[in-house]
């Protein structure tokens, strides 16, 4: 998908805007257009599932689209006995259908709720149209209507934090051998094929991706993680794909390195060498740390100090 021609990416963008901005109004245009809306939305989410790892978000987005299909459009999925039973129930319901007091109360409540939602949506819509739009924000104490967005903006480059450990006494020794901790899904090993995990969600991998957008001072938890890796805590190691120090003494030092990743070119030099990724070092993400040196850091934040097994 990434290496598709430029015109295909333009087409993708056009389809994306059409499905998200135009297709929702199909719900107001009758039964057939409502069914078409459901089909297009589900197909769109399936394409997103195939082309990226957005965990369970796309699967959840498909759920409301099921309401676009009435009994007639779904009857092929069920046996004849069940269809006949439902038809009899609908016939009995139609014969006894009259506007009861309960029905009137329900209509009044539905209209009242609709008016309430419309009133509470005014600041949300104004925010949507604003040039200084705020995301993931509530505009009332009950949080009935909110703004939501998985991403405020999309980066044009992918940067990654790579955690490395060494057994060397001196982390500044040029001959020190630094070995990488491999995560279960996020890019690391250049020769590992990109994973497909949806609808599962590796939360630590996800957080590592976001940490690469910022500094370690803004993501102190990554130093917490480094301390646990220095202590070789089993629970923490279970979140990783590989531990280069398994069966050996724990690392004396751990550091974070910042890299820029991009896909290798099919048929190119790196791809022919079995590499899915090409990376370029940006610089250090956080300096080498050892367990003893992190004691005060943990104590100041009331974090349990990692103890080596």
UniProtKB/TrEMBL annotation:
Keywords: Endoplasmic reticulum, Membrane, Transmembrane, Transmembrane helix
Any one Gene Ontology BP term: protein maturation
Membrane-crossing segments per the record: 14-30, 42-60, 108-129
GO cellular component labels: endoplasmic reticulum membrane
Entry-linked InterPro entries: LMF (IPR009613), LMF1/2_C (IPR057433), LMF1/2_N (IPR057434)
Span of domain Lipase maturation factor 1/2 N-terminal: 1-75
Lipase maturation factor 1/2 C-terminal domain residues: 144-287
Localization in the cell: Endoplasmic reticulum membrane
Membrane topology field: Multi-pass membrane protein
Role played: Involved in the maturation of specific proteins in the endoplasmic reticulum.
Family as reported in the entry's similarity comment: Belongs to the lipase maturation factor family.
UniProt-listed PANTHER family: LIPASE MATURATION FACTOR (PTHR14463), LIPASE MATURATION FACTOR 1 (PTHR14463:SF10)
Protein name: Lipase maturation factor
Organism: Cyanistes caeruleus (Eurasian blue tit)
């Amino acid at each position: 998908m990434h290496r598709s021609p430029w015109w295909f990416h333009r087409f993708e963008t056009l389809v994306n805007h059409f499905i998200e901005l135009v297709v929702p109004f199909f719900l107001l245009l009758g039964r057939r257009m409502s069914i078409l809306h459901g089909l297009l939305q589900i197909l769109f989410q399936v394409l997103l599932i195939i082309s990226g790892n957005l965990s369970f978000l796309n699967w959840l987005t498909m759920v409301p689209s099921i309401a676009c299909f009435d009994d007639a459009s779904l009857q092929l999925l069920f046996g004849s006995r069940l269809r006949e039973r439902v038809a009899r129930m609908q016939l009995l319901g139609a014969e006894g259908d009259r506007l009861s007091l309960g029905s009137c109360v329900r209509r009044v409540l539905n209209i009242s709720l609709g008016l309430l939602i419309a009133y509470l949506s005014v600041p949300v819509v104004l925010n949507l149209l604003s040039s200084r739009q705020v995301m993931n924000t509530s505009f009332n104490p009950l949080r009935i209507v909110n703004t939501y967005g998985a991403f405020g903006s999309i980066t044009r480059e992918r940067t990654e934090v790579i955690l490395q450990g060494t057994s060397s006494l001196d982390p500044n020794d040029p001959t020190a051998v630094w070995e990488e901790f491999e995560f279960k899904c996020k890019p690391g090993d250049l020769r590992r094929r990109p994973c497909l995990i949806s609808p599962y969600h590796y939360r630590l991998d996800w957080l590592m991706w976001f940490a690469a957008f910022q500094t370690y001072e803004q993501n102190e938890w990554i130093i917490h993680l480094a301390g646990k890796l220095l202590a070789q805590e089993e629970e923490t190691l279970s979140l990783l794909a590989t531990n280069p120090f398994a069966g050996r003494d724990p690392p004396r030092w751990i550091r974070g390195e910042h890299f820029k990743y991009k896909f290798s070119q099919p048929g190119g030099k790196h791809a022919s060498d079995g590499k899915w990724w090409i990376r370029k070092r940006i610089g250090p993400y956080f300096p080498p740390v050892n367990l003893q040196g992190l004691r005060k850091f943990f104590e100041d934040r009331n974090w349990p100090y990692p103890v080596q097994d």
